[in-house]
Amino acid sequence: MALQIFGIPVSRGIAVGRAVLMSSARLDVAHYFVDPGHEEQEVNRLRAARQAIRAELDALQLELPSDAPPELSAFIDVHKMLLDDPQIGRETATWIRKRRYNAEWALTAQLEVIGRSFDEMDDAYLRERKADVEQVVERLLRALRGTGGMARGTAGDEDLVLVAHDIAPADMMQFKQGVFRGFVTDVGGKTSHTAIVARSLDIPAVVGAREASRLIRQDDWIIIDGDSGLLIVDPSPIILEDYRVRKQESELGRQRLTRLKNTPARTLDGQMVELLANIELPDDCETALAAGAAGIGLFRTEYLFMNRAHDLPGEDEQYEAYRRVVQGMNGRPVTIRTIDIGADKPLDAEANYRDGEFTHLNPALGLRAIRYSLSDPAMFRVQLRALLRAATHGPLRILIPMLAHATEVHQTFIQLDMARAELAASSRPHGVPETGAMIEVPGAVLMLPLFLKHFDFISVGTNDLVQYTLAIDRADESVAGLYDPLHPAVLQLLAQTIAQAHAAESWKGRAVHVSVCGEMAGDPALTRLLLGLGLRSFSMHPAQLLSVKQEVLRADCAKLAPLARAVLAEYEPEGQQRALAALMN
Fold first, then answer.
1. Taking residues 538-554, what's their average pLDDT?
2. What percent of the chain is predicted at pLDDT more than 90?
3. Does 517 participate in catalysis according to the annotation?
4. CATH architecture of 34-144
5. How far, in Å, CA of 251 to CA of 13, rounded?
């Protein structure tokens, strides 16, 4: 009988495929695909590890003192027997040859299969022998850590879906080449960065599914419904066929949207709307252009830094990355955000938890974003110099994240001036890019006159604005139901920001350009509301751009403005729902 699991839908569409379980934190190993033709080299890595552990066990047995209990030698014999068992050796090699898993991943996948068979045993003593298998596998994993690894490749032709307790954004970036047809995680919220990256991959994803990684078994057939948040494990042939038909219909709908790629984003009453793309890596420019993006509204530079805590990218490496983005967009504007490390994007996987203790009590409220940059001025100026140099190649704008204090604003411009001076002193060419501020905390909205005075543009990061306004951890599935971008307080802050940016023309001589780069911008259900609030610049994942453009083409801003004001006037859920329904019709 099919098992149904419910989670939080974070990326639309339907995926059907075999489950690939990432290892638990206790067996924290690398997961990647070996390049075609290198499978036997990976099998040899496994064979060498088994030989090394066999030698280690032999040596342990020989070194046992003469008065040692006989059980110790018998225990080692059990491990040697398990080490030679075809289920560990031959079957693990099959994962490598069939799926091109690296050896560590193949071992943990096979451990899941073996462990399942032990769990199903009636005899309690035999069930407990599962621990012996786990200990042998852990020995092998330790041995493999010293034998290197192959370059990351791609999977074979079989459709696969990834199931894990959690997936770090940096790990997900390894799978951007279409390896998996969908993602499932036990934890996470709709705007956790894992969910955001899943949307950028434009594949179905469900997070916050709680026990999914425990209930789903290696190689199970799974259906992921990214529209409803439903997972179906081991579906019947009838259900499987039904969802395959739905999948085809969904793909046809996406194909029809591609016809809008070259259509100007103009509303029915003639308002031009700027639709920009959010990207994580320089290669993503191709995807942005393919979707018809008018430019890059947010390039998240932290993905250049992740998992490199002890080897941060230098100025030249960063410059090359930023130059590629600017040139890759062929003259379209590019907004590059300075490093936003912290919260669920640490420099390395252990940054927030070491030696059994949390290094930061609450990373979301700690040393992150501009606070992190200003705490290390030398590192910050390396990035600023690289950005200033890249600005000579096209229209680049620098975006500063999570500003909240006047001192942070002043210190940021001091560091910018110093970076310019350092480049001038070494006679290196550099540009004069516009500088913008991200509005992500309620305090920044209340201090907008200061930001509008000093910055050329502003960009509203609605993901964090919702999080900090409502005191909701957006990565915590236990409070995911309280994360509400339509909360009256959030809408009031957003409306104030847009209105004050437009009103700056009266005292600054020009309106300050304002855009929204959070997940609200990429939600077609919110497009009409944002247009009614006066927003004319949206930045989103390329996969969402055409759906939003379709809503823009159907909208009349003159008619939407009073309807949006009616939404702002409502504070009770029932009244707000009525006002939203009127706006959407």
1. 95
2. 56
3. yes
4. Orthogonal Bundle (1.10)
5. 8
